[in-house]
Amino acid sequence: MTNLLRRNILFLIFICACVLARPIYAISPIVPQEQAAWAASNTPESLEYNIYFHMGLINAKAGYGKLCFTKETDKNGQTIYHGQLAGKSLSIVEHIMKVRDTLDCYFNEDMVPKSFRKGTHEGSYNAVANYSYHTHWHNKSAAKRLNNVDSTSVELKRWRKKGKDPAVNRVVNFTNNGPAYDMLSVFYSVRHLDYEHMKKGKRIKFVCYDGITQQTINVDYCGVEKCELRNGKVHKAFLIDLNFATKGQDDTPLKVWLSTTPDHRPLKAIIGLRRIGSIRCEIQE
User: Fold this and answer.
1) Containing H/E element for 9?
2) pTM of the model
3) Which of 99, 215, 245, 283 has its CA at 20 to 30 Å from residue 232's CA atom?
4) Is the dihedral of CA 189, 246, 252, 278 positive or negative?
5) For 53-105, how does the pLDDT look when each residue is reduced to its tens digit (9 = 90+)?
6) Nearest Cα to 159, choosing from 144, 173, 169, 146?
7) Number of structural domains in the chain
C-alpha cells in the first residue's frame, strides 16, 4: 500500500506541476515542424500545487509540489531547458510514507531529453538516480527534433543507502526505438499535446524510465468538461485519463483537467485508491 500511495502522490505532483508557457505540438508518430518555435517564447516560471487526501470524513492536505523552469546554457554554449520539481508530503501521509523528492530534467529546445536526476530522502532511506539520454537520429544532418529520433539509449547510475547498511551502486542501460522520456520531461510532453484538434477517445502512448524499469504511459482524451476547484472557481477544461500500463493492463486512471486557454494549464487531478479513498491535486490560484 505504501509504495502505491507514494507513487500516486508523486504522479499527481508530476502531472499538475509540469507547466510551461503555452502548448507546442502534438507528440505522435508525426511531429509538426512548428515545434521549434516553442522554446524562444518561454520565460522562467514558478508554480505551486496542493495535494489533498480524501477518505470518508477525512479531507486533509497531504502534500504540495513546486516547479521551477529556467533557460540555461550548457558547457558547449548550447541552449538547454531545466525543469526542477520538489515534492513534499504532509499531515496524514507522513505517518504512512514521507515524500521528500527533488527531480531535475534537462532537454533541448525541441523537447528531446538530455539528462534527469532524482534525489529521494525518506527517513533513513536515501537514493540518487542519474539518467543520461543519448539520442540516435534517422538523419544526422537534419534538425534534432522528435520526428527525427531513430532510437534512444539511456544510462542509469543509481546510488542507494538505507540506515547503517552499506551503500549500493548500480549501473543499468536501456534502449528504446524512438523517443524516450524521464518521469518529469514526459509530463511536459503530455501537457503540450494538441487537444484542440484531437478527437475524443484518442490514445497516445509514451515510453519513459522509472527506477530500473521501462514504463508505458497511455493518455486518453475524454473531451471538454467544466472543472470546479475547492475555491469555487469554475474553468472550461480538457479532461484526460492517464494510465501506467503494467503487464499489458492499465492502472486506475489519473483524471486530469487542463485549461482550454492557450497555456493548457493543469487545473486539477484526481485518482481513486483501492479501499483507501482518493488523492486530489489542485493548482494554487
Assistant:
1) helix 2-17
2) 0.77
3) 99
4) negative
5) 777 766 777 777 787 778 888 888 888 888 888 777 776 655 555 666 788 99
6) 169
7) 1
